[in-house]
């Protein structure tokens, strides 16, 4: 398997797609777990928030100091979008909301509820803060 893996990573054209998909899958389940820090990110309008996951806390390699990279998954899909945003446009999720609960909430289109284990409360539609 290791030989096949190295072959695909060196094949022109396939290399970019294969390595990107491999990194993405490892971010979910492999040793490189990246989707473990759920956040609320403001990218559209003042009071519109998306649920995302910080994937890079340092974007200085793009010449952007004090910016972070956030992956925002789409509902009912395995796709998403990557944003590089100023750190002040990020809010931490309430204590007790796990990464898996946040992902489940996004992928379901907000149909599932997110239980806050510490406060035994639930996020509700129409509630501007995330604590009930």
Write the layout of secondary structure elements.
Elements: H1 2-10, H2 14-29, E1 38-41, E2 50-56, E3 67-73, E4 80-86, E5 90-92, H3 99-107, E6 115-116, E7 121-122
Antiparallel strand pairs: 1-2, 1-5, 2-3, 3-4, 6-7
What would your notes on this structure say?
With 132 residues, this protein is of the alpha+beta class. The chain has helices at residues 2-10, 14-29, 99-107, and strands at residues 38-41, 50-56, 67-73, 80-86, 90-92, 115-116, 121-122. Mean pLDDT is 77; it is low at 116-132. The protein is built from three helices and seven strands. The strands form two sheets. The protein has a five-stranded antiparallel sheet with strand order 4-3-2-1-5, with helices on one face. A two-stranded antiparallel sheet has the order 6-7. The longest helix is centred in the first third of the chain and has 16 residues, at 14-29. The termini are far apart. It has two domains: 1-33, no CATH class; 34-132, SH3 type barrels, CATH 2.30.30.
Name the features.
alpha+beta, 2 domains, five-stranded antiparallel β-sheet, 3 helices, 7 strands
Question: Would you state the CATH class of the largest domain?
Answer: Mainly Beta
Spatial sequence of strands, sheet with the most strands: 4-3-2-1-5
Question: Which architecture name of the largest domain does CATH use?
Answer: Roll
Count of helical regions = 3
What is the number of independent domains? 2
pLDDT below 50 for ≥5 consecutive residues: which ranges?
Answer: 116-132
Number of strands: 7
**Which of globular, elongated, flat, extended, rod-shaped describes the shape?**
globular
Distance between the termini: 49 Å
Specify Rg, calculated over alpha carbons.
17 Å
Strand composition percent: 15-25%
Q: Main beta sheet, described?
A: 5 strands, antiparallel
Which secondary-structure class do the elements indicate? alpha+beta
**SSE pattern, N- to C-terminal:** HHEEEEEHEE
CATH topology-level fold name of the largest domain: SH3 type barrels
**Helical residue percent?**
25-40%
What does the average pLDDT come to? 77
């Amino acid at each position: 398997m290791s030989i096949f893996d190295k072959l695909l990573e060196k094949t022109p054209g396939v290399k970019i797609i294969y390595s990107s998909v491999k990194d993405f899958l490892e971010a979910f389940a492999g040793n490189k777990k990246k989707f473990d820090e759920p956040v609320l990110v403001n990218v559209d309008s003042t009071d519109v928030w998306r649920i995302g996951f910080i994937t890079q806390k340092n974007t200085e390699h793009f010449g952007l100091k004090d910016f972070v990279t956030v992956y925002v998954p789409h509902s009912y899909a395995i796709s998403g979008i990557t944003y590089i945003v100023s750190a002040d446009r990020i809010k931490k999720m309430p204590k007790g909301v796990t990464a898996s609960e946040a992902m489940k909430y996004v992928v379901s289109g907000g149909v599932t509820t997110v239980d806050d284990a510490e406060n035994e409360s639930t996020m509700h539609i129409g509630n501007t803060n995330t604590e009930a």
